[in-house]
Specification:
Blueprint: H1 10-21, E1 28-32, H2 39-51, H3 64-70, E2 77-81, H4 90-100, E3 110-115, H5 122-133, E4 139-145, H6 153-157, E5 160-163, H7 169-179, H8 185-194, H9 199-224, H10 229-237, H11 243-264, H12 272-280, H13 283-301, H14 306-318
Parallel strand pairs: 1-4, 1-5, 2-3, 3-4
Helix pairs in contact: 2-3, 4-5, 7-8, 9-10, 9-11, 9-12, 10-14, 11-12, 11-13, 13-14
The chain binds zinc ion.
Length: 319
């Protein structure tokens, strides 16, 4: 992954690629921006640039330096994660300071990634400042933080600041397509829009959302055959969380209903909820259930009120 594969943020990419091609790459960089905007991804690209052994077009992605970096095993890349307790303390910064004066093992530059520095204490920042004021040759520091204003002015003034913003939903959706090849363009666009283009948030939502939706779909199917009506009402009420979530649950329910139809025809099924449904409902009732779910999916595409929809859906599933 090089700078071109980084989504959006054209200005930052342009400035960084200019710096990478010049002879005076900054020795201290601050990457700031909201969570999920790609600060760590960019920091790792810069780390690969520092250890790449190619003559030009760094990071090349295939030299020994890049390969080791990609496998997180490069001796000249030191990562300190501020989220872990006991890191970025004054002692750890002092250790880092003495280490920084040792020549790189094998790379042209040695690089320190100081990640999530939001809570870095001023005393530790002052210790870091000492080294930023008199930087050893061939050492690069990359600091990531949600806002550069959380760092001391003296640290900021010694560093070059690159601010990341969420990309436009279209750009974000294109990137998400490479992570979720099975999702439709519409699903990815709505996930990107829902997360305001923030890639990290969209990925988290898509991952957790689909697992949660699948689990809820299976529970709803089981509850249809359950005599206690209250149970189904509680489960369907969770559909009012969001239109995307409800649509996801309905899509899984359509798959589940198909599984029930196949199971009622005597085909084997892995789905426990389908086995229970086939035992308790007649094939005719199962067909009707599948039709109802399909109709509900169409209703959801209209501008229906979600609270009304979830109550109505509970009623028609029971019918
Ligand atoms: Zn390389």
């Amino acid at each position: 992954m090089d700078l071109n594969s980084f989504v959006g943020n054209e200005t930052v990419r342009f400035e960084l690629s200019q710096a990478m091609q010049s002879d005076n790459f900054p020795h201290a960089l601050i990457i700031d921006g909201a969570a999920g905007t790609g600060k760590k991804t960019l920091a790792r690209i810069i780390a690969r640039y520092c250890v790449c052994l190619a003559e030009e077009h760094k990071p090349c992605g295939h030299c020994a330096g890049c390969i080791k970096a990609l496998h997180h095993s490069h001796p000249d890349i030191c990562i300190v994660d501020g989220k872990a307790s006991g890191t970025l303390t004054i002692d750890s910064v002092r250790r880092l300071r003495s280490d920084a004066y040792i020549m790189p093992h094998e790379a042209p530059k040695k690089v320190y990634l100081l990640l999530d520095c939001d809570k870095m204490q001023p005393v530790a920042q002052n210790a870091l400042l000492k080294i930023l004021e008199e930087p050893p040759k061939n050492v690069v520091f990359v600091i990531t933080v949600t806002s550069a204003n959380l760092l001391l002015l003296t640290v900021r003034s010694r560093s070059r600041i690159y601010t990341l913003y969420p990309p436009a939903p279209g750009q974000a959706a294109d990137y998400l397509a490479s992570v979720f090849p099975d999702k439709t363009k519409d699903e990815l666009l709505s996930a990107a829009a829902l997360a305001d283009g923030n890639i990290g948030t969209a990925i988290r939502n898509l991952e957790s959302g689909s697992e949660e939706a699948k689990a809820l779909a299976d529970e709803i199917l089981l509850a249809v055959t359950d005599k206690r009506e209250y149970n189904l009402l509680v489960l369907t009420s969770r559909l009012s969380a969001s239109r995307e979530f409800a649509a996801g649950v309905l899509d899984f329910l359509i798959e589940d209903a198909g599984e029930c139809i196949r199971a009622s025809a005597g085909l084997p099924t892995e789905l426990q909820a389908a086995r229970v449904t086939v035992e308790k409902l007649s094939p005719k009732r199962i067909y009707r259930l599948a039709e109802t779910i399909g109709r509900a999916r169409d209703v959801l595409k209209t501008n229906v009120n979600l609270n009304f929809f979830s109550t109505w859906f509970c009623a028609v599933l029971r019918a």
